[in-house]
Amino acid sequence: MPVRDMSFESALKELETIVARLEQGEVDLEDSIALYERGQALKSHCEAKLKSAESRLEKIVQGAGGPAVGERLDVA
């Protein structure tokens, strides 16, 4: 499945699987490179999804009276 079509949860699960395979060290060089490239794409996708969710939450909070002046909205 193309990374851009994946949900955050699916992308994160696949990324965890890739990391586990690479950590085991039982993958040949070419497969390791392909896995690493896929992992980088998944990581970027997850980061973009999180940033989008954070922006949406900030808009919701600000729309509901928002944080006090100078207060930072921390979304973990």
Question: How would you describe this protein?
Answer:
The structure is a single chain. By secondary structure, this protein is an all-alpha fold. The protein has a single domain, classed as Orthogonal Bundle (Helix Hairpins), CATH 1.10.287. Helices cover 68% and strands 0% of the residues. Helix 1 (8-24) packs antiparallel against helix 2. The longest helix is centred in the middle third of the chain and has 35 residues, at 29-63. The chain starts with 7 loop residues before the first helix and ends in a 13-residue tail after the last helix. The model has no long low-confidence stretch (mean pLDDT 88).
Describe, in short, the structure shown:
The protein has 76 residues and is mainly α. The protein has two helices and no strands. The protein has helices at 8-24, 29-63.
| Count of helical stretches | 2
Roughly what fraction of the amino acids lie in strands?
Answer: under 5%
What is the CATH fold-level name?
Helix Hairpins
Helix percent band: 55-70%
Poorly predicted parts: none
The ordered string of helix (H) and strand (E) elements is HH
Q: Which geometry do the CA atoms define?
A: elongated
Measured on Cα atoms, how large is the radius of gyration?
17 Å
Total number of domains: 1
Assembly category = single chain
